Amino acid sequence: MNYANALKDFSQIFKKPHHQPKYIQTGSLPFLDIYRNNVLANRSANLANTYPTVMQLVGEEFFSAMARVFVENSESHSGNLHHDGESFPDFLNTFPHVSDLPYLSDMAKLDWAIHLAHYSADCNSIAIETLASYTPEQFGKLSLILHPAVAIVKSSAWPIYQILMMHHGASPADLNAGGEQVWVWRDHWQLLSISDALFLESLLNSQNIESAMRATADDEYDAGPVLIQLFSRGLVCQIN
Length: 240
Prior knowledge:
Layout: H1 3-11, H2 32-50, H3 52-58, H4 60-72, H5 88-94, H6 104-119, H7 136-139, E1 144-146, E2 151-154, H8 160-166, E3 181-185, E4 188-192, H9 194-204, H10 209-214, H11 224-232, E5 236-239
Antiparallel strand pairs: 1-5, 2-3, 3-4
Helix pairs in contact: 2-4, 3-4, 3-6, 5-6
């Protein structure tokens, strides 16, 4: 028996309710439905915890039905439920029953980033005083390794920050306000200008400070305020 093939065969019970895995004993077959339903229910419930804003936008009952469709048609590639559901934003782009909510996929991307930030590993932070040891010429060549919780989520068309804050007690979002950029870190989020978002994205992509500033396409861009926030929040883990 090839163990990998046996597991692959067994996993078909989630796609084909009447599938009988080759290596399952006859006495265990009646319990496969219980196992299948428990797994699907757990993944669906986890999806609701991972995407709370999406669930609030569509309602709990509708979300539950939509989550069921998703988990029945997608595989979990990790034994850790915190890693399950990464492709849900892409699923929303193709799910016809939410076509009247075109911002839903971008909100799901924001929910996913917040979820990952909450469960990400920690790191020892670097104090801003460390920068004093570098000359002005060296400063621009520095690359900053940021905290694993840091992420930038951008929407070209929708006010994702407004929509998020609306579900945290703020005023209703203006869907005609255009796209927004959000900086996410451990259980926090902040609205960003497009220049600040491009700068932080470049740092996350291992560009040095000088190159990251050029990526903003703003000759007068001042990276100082963002750098101060990065260090004061303990979000710089290493300087190269």
